[in-house]
Amino acid sequence: MTKEMKSKKYAGVFYRELANGDRSYFLRLRIGGKIKRFAIGKKSEGVTEAFCNQEKIRIVNESKFGKGVAADLQRISKVLPSFVDMVDFYIQTSQCAEGTKREVRYLKNEPIAEIPNPTRYDIQQFLLSELSRIKPGTVNLKMKRIRGVYRHAIAHGFYNGEDPTFGMKPFKGEEARRRALSLEETVTLLEAFKNKPRHYLFLKIALCTGARSGSILRIHRDDIRDDGRVILFNEKTDQQYIGFLDMETLDLVRNKKGYILARRGEEDAPAKRYGICGTIQLMMDKLFNKPGTRDLDRVVIHTLRHSVATQMVQKGVPLEIISKTLDHASLQTTVKFYAKISPEMVRESVKNIWE
Which of 51, 119, 122, 260 has the largest count of CB atoms under 10 Å? Predict the structure, then answer.
């Protein structure tokens, strides 16, 4: 029997040279965690490597999404789908975290979604227009999500065109917000919500844990332990981690049930983001964001997370503990984006060099 040969063009495609000069094609694919062999046919029967690759895509799609979806993909692949179609396909079939899917879903509301089949120029113009109003890091995230939509559609045979984002470079610029609340500003903000229990509780949890707003809004009473531990959900990594509440915050939730930030009678579902975060942001604008304040200097909900890290740094908490508190993937993220060094810290350090 002749030796199995691997296609140089398509992964998973193999063939054997037969004694009569013909060629027999087959696939070797990992399906359900096991390597399986699929006979495709002979060259004399019209089978080509490209055809084998199409069969590979069909088989993989059937194993992941079922025969109905795979059949739809075969039909759709003959005509280029629209950008919105690809976004929907990504949301329905991608195995990524829900937070990522939510960011991809937002693309349907962007101007780029109004163009059925955007070209590379269209995408670049959209990103440049975004750069005029938001920081480079946010624009780069949108580029990443658009690129992910195309690559997912291409990898699963949903889109047979070229990836217009290929080779696009991220925009350079200052990506991290500079702003963090001082202790005095933190007290002022808390005082403003003393008579709004849900908003006050949100702020207290944010200032104890440094968690993102989405993580805080979905806290259930069952996630909180009597010793102050609270189970938080990181939407970026799609994993849980542990935070801690102080005694005042723990007392505020002792008699709660269901989702602790939901309105009374609606505790079976997480609180709506705008109902709490929108109100807090309006107060932040009133207290801290004067007209003309630069975007990077504005106080926003995420500033609470920055503030927790900054206050911990100023109190001499090791960066490893700060990184653990914020559930960062690496210590470098903590240093680069959150641990601000204040002028007062530099002044005290210089003063104490020789003491």
Answer: 260
Euclidean distance between CA atoms 290 and 136, whole angstroms: 23
Residues pairing with 27 in the sheet: 13, 38
d(CA 39, CA 45): 13
Q: Is the pLDDT of residue 250 over 90?
A: yes
Query: Which residues have a Cβ under 8 Å from the Cβ of 75 and sit 6 or more positions away?
Result: none
* Structural domain containing residue 325: 183-350
CA 235, 236, 241, 245 torsion-angle sign: negative
**One-letter amino acid identity for 334?**
T
Residues ≥6 apart with Cβ < 8 Å to 101: 90, 91, 94
Contact 276, 219 (CB under 8 A): no
Beta-carbon contacts of residue 22 (< 8 Å; ≥ 6 apart):
42, 43, 44
Buried b (16+ CB within 10 A) or exposed e, 42-64: bbeeebebeebbbbbbbbbbbee
Q: Whole-number mean pLDDT of the chain?
A: 85
193 and 328 in a single domain? The answer is yes
CATH number at residue 243: 1.10.443.10
Residues 123 and 138 in one domain: yes
Tell me the H-state helices in the chain. Answer: 49-65, 67-76, 83-93, 98-106, 120-131, 136-155, 183-192, 197-209, 213-217, 247-253, 273, 279-288, 303-314, 319-325, 331-333, 343-351
- pLDDT interval class at 143 (50, 70, 90): very high
Whole-number pLDDT of residue 339: 54
* Overall number of domains in the chain: 3
Whether the CB-CB separation of 326 and 308 falls below 8 Å is answered with yes
Neighbours of 232 (CB within 10 A): 22
**Using CB atoms within 10 A of its CB, is residue 90 exposed (0-12), middle (13-18) or buried (19+)?**
buried
Helix H segments across 277-342? 279-288, 303-314, 319-325, 331-333
What gap in Å lies between CA 231 and CA 218, rounded to an integer? 10
